[in-house]
Amino acid sequence: MAERRWPGENAGGPANSSSRLVHIPVEPHVAGVGLSAPAGPRSPDLAGLAIFTLDAQGRVATWTVAAARLFGCTARAIVGQDVSEALMPGKGHAQLLRQALGEARAGRVWTATLSMALAGGGTVALRCEPMAEPGAGALMIAQRVPQSAGQMLLSEAATRIGTTLDLTQTAREAVDLTVPGFADAAGIVVPERMLAADEFVPHEPGRQVVLRRLVACLAGYPAADTDRLLAPGEVLVFGEDCPISRAMETGRPVLYRHLDDITLQRLSASPAGQAIAAGFGSFLAVPLIARGLVVGCVIFARAAAGPKFRRADIELAGQLAARAALCIDNARMYNRERRIATALQRGLLPGCPAVPPGLEVAHRYLPVGANVVGGDWHDIVTLPGGKAALIVGDAMGHGPEAAAVMVQLRTAAHTLADLDLPPEEVLRRLDRLAADMTVTAFATCIFAVIDPADGSCVIAKAGHLPPVMVGANGATRVLDLPAGLPLGLGVESFEATPVSLPPGATLALYTDGLVESRYLPVDAGTAALREALGRSLAEPGAALAGPCHLVTESLRRHGEDDITLVLARIRA
C-alpha cells in the first residue's frame, strides 16, 4: 500500500524533511554478540518502536533488542544480510528499499507501510532517515501497525480508486493501490459479454467462463513489461473448476496455492514469465460485486517467500474489492451511455455531403460542455439544376431531450428539401410535425436555397437569428428577413425572401449559441460575430474551412449552448 506517512504524522509532512523527528537510544548489537542487553539500564521500548541501521548497500549493520523482538530474528542471524531478502521478501519491496536508501543519501526522510516478515506476521510502518555521515547508510525506525492499518488502505482506496470514469484507468488504480503493499501482484478480469453487449449471462454448471483482462500489475516490473506478459484486453476462457470461475459463481473469495492454468500458460510463453510464475505461492480471487451483479474478479498473489494470505487479509481484500467493483460498474455504465450517445451523434451529423461544383461550403458544430449530442443540426442537400439547400436548426433545450426532437426534425427537413419544395413550404410542414409530437417540441430553423448559376438565394426563417452576409472585401451586414415564429406552434405562417449573393460574397448561417449567453447580449454577440467574420474573410479567395474554424474558436468562450456555423460562397 506504500502509505507515505509515519503513523500519527501530519499529512503535510515535517517542516524540514531532512531533520529526524524521532530520536531513540540505539541498543547496538552486532553479529556474535547475541541478544543480551548491554550493561546499565535497559532502554525503554517506546510504543513498540524498534531501531536498526543499514549500510550503503542495504545490508543490516546494527540490530537492537527491540528489533529482535519485533521481527523475531537474532542479531547473529541477520547482521550483514540484505534487509530486503531477510525482512522484505516481496518482489516490489526490494525496489522500495532502493528508493529509501536513495532518499537517505539525498538527506531526506522516507516512510512507508508494508507487509513484512514479523514475529507472528503483520504490517510494519518504516521510517528511513539519513545518517549523520553522508553516504554511510540509513537509520531505520520500525513499528508494528495494528490491524487498523487496513483502515488506512481502505481510506486511501476511497480517494485513489475511481478518479475518472475510464474503465481501464479505474481498474489500474485499484491494482496499483494494492501492489506491493498488500500483494506482490494483482489483476482484474471482467465478463466479456458485459463489455461487448452490456449483458450479464448467468453461470451454468459445466460451462466455461469467458473473461477479458482489464489490467495486471507485477511488483518490481514496469507497466509496459507487465502488459507484454499479461496483455490488457486479452480474452480468456476459464474452466468452471478454476478458482476465478468459482469466486464469480459463488460470490465468495477463493484462496488457493497454485496459479490458474490459463495465466500459467500465458506466463510460461517466455523465460521471464516462467520465473515470475515460479515465484508466487499464495493466491486470492475476490469477486467484484456491485448493485447485486458480479462485474468481475480481482486476483491477488504473494511471493512464495513472503507471508501467506490470512483471514484478516481476505476480509480486507473483500472490502477493497467492494470499493473497486462500484467504481468499475460506474465506469461501465458511463461507457455504455457514452457509446450510445456517440453512435447517435455519428448517425445524426452529416458526414461528407455532396456540394454542387459551383458552391463552396464549410461547417462546424460544437456541443456545449460534456454533451456529446444536443439540439443543433445542420444539413446540405444537393438539388436539381446544381442548386443546394442549406439548413440550420436549433431544438430548444440541451442534451438527449433536445437531441430526440432534433433527430425527427433533421430527418424530416432533409426529406422535404430533397423533394425540392419551396423553403416556406418546408418550414410549414416542419411546423406541423413539431406541433404533433407527443413531447413538447419547439425549434428555430433557417432554410436557404442557393443557385450558383445566377447567384440567387431564397431564404425562409422560423424564429431563427438572421444570416450575415460578408462581402468580398470583408464588409458585413445582417440580412433583414421576416422572423417567423418557431416551429411547434402550429401557425404555419412563414415567408420566403429572395436575396442576391454577389461574386465573392459569403453567407453565414448560425445558431444562437455562437452569439448569446447570460453574459453576452445577442446584439453584442452579433457584433462580435460580424467583426470575426469580416476579419477572417477579408482575404479574397481564401478557403472557407479556416475562417469557419477561427470564428467558432474565437466566440466559443462566450457560449453556454451548442454552437453551429455554416459558411457558403459561390465559386468564381
The number of distinct helices, counting runs of at least 4 residues, comes to: 16
What is the CATH fold-level name of the largest domain? Phosphatase 2c, domain 1
Mean pLDDT: 82
Number of strands: 21
The CA-CA distance between the termini, in Å, is 69 Å
Strand order, biggest sheet?
8-7-6-11-10-9
How large is the share of residues in beta strands? 15-25%
Word description of this protein:
The model is unreliable at 1-46 (pLDDT under 50). The longest helix has 38 residues, at 311-348. The chain is 33% helix and 25% strand. With 572 residues, the protein is an alpha+beta fold. It starts with 48 loop residues before the first strand and ends with a strand. It has three domains: 1-146, Beta-Lactamase; 149-340, GAF domain (Beta-Lactamase), CATH 3.30.450; 353-570, 4-Layer Sandwich (Phosphatase 2c, domain 1).
Please describe the topology of this protein:
Elements (H helix, E strand, L loop, with lengths): L48 E6 L5 E4 L1 H7 L3 H4 L4 H4 L4 H15 L4 E6 L7 E8 L7 E8 L3 H12 L6 H12 L6 E7 H6 L11 E10 L4 H7 L5 E4 L4 H8 L3 E3 L4 H7 L3 H8 L1 E11 L2 E11 L7 H38 L10 E8 L9 E7 L5 E8 L3 H20 L4 H13 L7 E9 L4 E7 L5 E3 L5 E3 L17 E5 L5 E5 L11 H15 L8 H11 L7 E8 L2
Helix pairs in contact: 5-6, 5-12, 6-12, 13-14, 15-16
Brief digest:
With 572 residues, the chain is of the alpha+beta class. The chain is 33% helix and 25% strand.
